[in-house]
């Protein structure tokens, strides 16, 4: 079992909080709606805090790369699923490249 599993679970929770914040940001209508605006700010603050706690045990470069890429890919998928954003071959290939890049970063890191 991974010794840093709990830290990676914190990164996963951080990604979920960041994507929730992004969805709230979409509903905030340019920060003109109070509740979604507050939710966006709270979710982003939680995401940063969770990532900071995870970085106590994980390397910064890999942690941030996983967080940023996972959040980007998840936000794109949520946008397609919830908001009817267009899905195309180029978009799907781009998402695969983002995920593949993070996998390669992880494989290239000494264990």
Molecular structure report:
The structure is a single chain. The protein has about 110 residues and is mainly alpha-helical. The chain has one domain (about 5-105). About 80% of the residues lie in helices and about 0% in strands. It has four helices and no strands. It has helices at about 5-25, 35-55, 60-85, 90-105. The model has no long low-confidence stretch (mean pLDDT about 90). It is a multi-pass membrane protein. Keywords: Cell membrane, Membrane, Transmembrane, Transmembrane helix, Transport.
List the topology elements.
Elements: H1 5-27, H2 34-54, H3 60-83, H4 89-107
Helix pairs in contact: 1-2, 1-3, 3-4
Count of distinct strands: 0
Structural class: mainly alpha
The amount of helix comes to: over 70%
SSE ordering = HHHH
Specify the oligomeric state: single chain
Low-pLDDT stretches are none
Notable characteristics:
111 residues; Small_multidrug_res; transmembrane helix; transmembrane; 4 helices; mainly alpha; EmrE-like; 0% strand; cell membrane
């Amino acid at each position: 079992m991974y010794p840093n599993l709990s830290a990676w679970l914190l990164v996963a929770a951080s990604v979920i909080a960041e994507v929730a914040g992004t969805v709230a940001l979409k509903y905030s209508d340019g920060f003109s709606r109070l509740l979604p605006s507050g939710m966006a700010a709270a979710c982003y603050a939680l995401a940063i805090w969770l990532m900071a706690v995870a970085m106590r045990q994980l390397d910064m470069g890999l942690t941030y790369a996983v967080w940023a890429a996972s959040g980007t890919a998840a936000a794109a998928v949520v946008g397609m699923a919830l908001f009817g954003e267009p899905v195309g071959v180029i978009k799907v290939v781009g998402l695969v490249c983002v995920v593949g890049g993070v996998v390669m970063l992880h494989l290239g890191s000494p264990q």
